[in-house]
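Quick one:
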Amino acid sequence: MASSSNDGKSPSGATFTAPTTKTQGFKVAVVGAAGGIGQPLSLLAKQSNLVKELSLYDVAPVTPGVAADLSHINTPSKVVGYQAEQMSEALKDSDIIIVPAGVPRKPGMTRDDLFNINAGIVANIAKTAASAAPNAALLIISNPVNSTVPIVAEVLKKHGSYNKNKLFGVTTLDVVRANTFVSENQNIPVETLDVPVIGGHAGITIIPVLSNVKGAKFSKEDKEQLTHRIMFGGDEVVKAKNGGGSATLSMAYAGWQFAEKVLRAIKSEKGIIAYSYVENSQAPTQFFASPVELGKDGIAKIHPIPQLDDFEKQKLEAAVPELKNAIQKGVEFVKNQK
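Output:
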């Protein structure tokens, strides 16, 4: 098993030259690091000057190899790969833990179809994090996010380490897609857009607030088509890959975009706001994708959701029962665990 010192060895014993340049950053753990999301996300993390140590965990036997591969990149952060029974060591004292672990969607598969497999995976990760890194911010990518985030919350509560300000469901991909699709539709530079997307992270629970986009003029048809495309953008990728997987590269990009904001806020940068699926007592459901102001200790403030027009209010009304069911499903899963 690898030591926590920078000894240039992976847990498998493979030796590689570790960077010696000191960096003022944080320990970032990626759980599911050898997967389709985990590998490109880890590559993005390796490029960040906010990362001092990149801890990669996966059950896959290639994980030490992924770590060795990334360690050859000439950026200062140290990379260590862990596998099998080494999750606790991988997570120990992490500042943030990013969780893309689990099985991906396949054609014809809904996010609910993933539940029975991914629920158990996420619950085990939460249990390990509760003891190994009780102060870490947890960024949950594993689907179905509408249920997996409540699962993590309930497991952490069982172990006395739940901090609602440090648990995030990563819904950034919905915002990324909304920005891209609106840019194409309105011929607005994509880098100037930040489309609010509220609710959840599955199908009709994803509610883009297009009425809040400054400088845009949507026809009724445009608004309906864009809203549907943003809601079901994941299906578009699943179909296009023709059985070869789901959204991995765009999810990795969006996941790291959010993670980097969390790290910048921990480093005391002010005024960072991002949309995330979090516990929100002011929302229509217990967990709700909301505009969150990030701070040194996680959530500094949850801002009110943007004002909705009648079309968006109808979408919200339809989303609420779906969200409540998904949240309850997660809560019951943990209650029924021995």
